[in-house]
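User: Teach me something about this protein's shape.
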Amino acid sequence: MSGDPPTPGLQEERIEGVPLYLIPKVIADHIREKRETVFRISVGRVREHRYRIVVETFNEHAQQATQAVAVPQGPPVQPVQQVVPVRQRKGGRHGS
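Assistant: First, the predicted structure itself:
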């Protein structure tokens, strides 16, 4: 809140146990703090009238996306065998 530019490399932040009436203030404070680095804000109910707020930055999202796209190392995949269509019988339902 000191007016400093956001720190590069900020990660996902979780705020637990926020009462319903404080959700807008907590979200606004994080948007002011992180500015353009905010990618996603999620709010979920934890228990009774308490909520969890998750603030995800672009850097965190990019790291997760890179990990999700990574191809696992292992033996090569065998090609799928070609499927041969079955001929229809004469005099079947379709009037062949």
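Now, about its shape. The first helix runs from residue 23 to 34. Helices lie at 23-34, 58-69. If you'd like, I can walk through any region in more detail.
User: That's plenty for now, thanks!
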